[in-house]
Amino acid sequence: MGMALWKNRRGQGLTEYIIIVALVAIAGIGIVNIFGNQLRNQFHTIVKAMSGSETETVRSLAGKAGTEANQKNLSTYAGSK
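Structure (tokenized):
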């Protein structure tokens, strides 16, 4: 009887662990959906700057990324004013 109880508790711990991992994954997906385009523009600007692109190209990309970052933030999705 003691062995069956031990296995049941072990299964409960594993289930809790799986639920936590699933919640973290869902939160990560949500963050990427919210900030994905902003991150993509920022990395695009960094790559262009490191690859030796013209200064004006990098400045325009940085401006575009900044404009988009100002337009969309967490309050955009939360509905707060």
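Residues 2-75 form one domain. The longest helix spans residues 2-50.
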